[in-house]
From TrEMBL:
Cited Gene3D superfamilies: NAD(P)-binding Rossmann-like Domain
Family: Belongs to the short-chain dehydrogenases/reductases (SDR) family.
Record InterPro entries: NAD(P)-bd_dom_sf (IPR036291), SDR (IPR050259), SDR_fam (IPR002347)
SUPFAM superfamilies: NAD(P)-binding Rossmann-fold domains
Protein name, as recorded: SDR family oxidoreductase
Protein species of origin: Marivibrio halodurans
Protein origin, superkingdom: Bacteria
Length: 259
């Protein structure tokens, strides 16, 4: 299927690796020119070069902290009129809510709620004027099924989801959609680090623990960043204009509900 995106411009956040890179690669394969950001410059530049060489599109790396005003300004200077915005940021650490103070909550809200909202605010009116816009917020399956030790993430991402639910109904008449993409277990550094900590605690090989995690999923495996990226690309496509304010689970069937 031709997604109708050739020549479009996209900002993809936290795209040097993992799910963000999967989304950037899928969009680039459809002919989208990219501005990608992450904090680690050498990894980001290498990713940009590899995607550009493989897909023949423009890929501009902007190494910055997207949760800061200065970081957002640099990204928007590199791409002031994006057709697509993919919001993404690493999740806050797990723990017991009794141990978190106000600074912990503010950091979680800055990264996983306020930064996406501020980026949307910066680009949405231009999208409306141009009669095309796609915003995809990468959140978490915990939005549907909260995980007790991920309270910081649960709260911040649920706040973003609630905000988007209202705004998405206002922008869709202008062919600007805003949706959430909710990952379950994917083979990323974050999952591997979590599995490594568990493996060390249990005195087992990391790969064994990772295989066990995949086997516990209804699909019998964990997902790949590439297939997550393809889901993102569809939400960004010319064919998804009647889909907005939705939260699409990509979790191998782990969520047991019907809604």
């Amino acid at each position: 299927m031709d997604l109708g995106l050739r020549g479009r411009k996209a900002i993809v956040c936290a795209a040097s690796k993992g799910l963000g890179r999967g989304c950037a690669e899928a969009l680039a394969a459809e002919g989208v020119d990219l501005v990608i950001n992450a904090r680690t410059e050498d990894t980001l530049v290498r990713t940009a070069e590899e995607i550009a060489a493989r897909c023949g599109v423009s890929v501009t790396p902007v190494a910055c902290d997207i949760t800061t005003e200065a970081g957002r300004a640099r990204v928007l200077e590199a791409c002031p009129e994006p057709d697509i915005l993919v919001n993404n940021a690493g999740g806050p650490p797990p723990g017991d809510f009794r141990d978190w103070d106000r600074d912990d909550w503010i950091a979680a809200l800055d990264a996983n709620m306020l930064t996406p909202i501020l980026l949307i605010k910066s680009v949405v009116d231009g999208m409306i004027e141009r009669r095309f816009g796609r915003v995809v917020n990468i959140t978490s399956a915990a939005v549907k099924a909260p995980i007790p030790i991920l309270g910081l993430s649960n709260g911040a991402r649920a706040g973003l989801t609630g905000f988007v639910a209202g705004l998405a109904r206002e922008t869709v008449r202008h062919n600007v959609t805003i949706n959430g993409l909710l990952p379950g277990p994917f083979d990323t550094d974050r999952l591997r680090n979590t599995m490594a900590a568990r493996a060390e605690k249990e005195g087992r090989p990391v790969e064994e623990v990772l295989r066990e995690a995949g086997a516990s999923n209804p699909s019998g495996r964990v997902g790949t960043p590439a297939e997550f990226g393809h889901a993102c690309a569809f939400l960004c496509s010319a064919h998804s204009g009647f889909m907005t304010g939705q939260n699409l689970l990509v979790d191998g069937g782990a969520f047991p509900g019907t809604l």
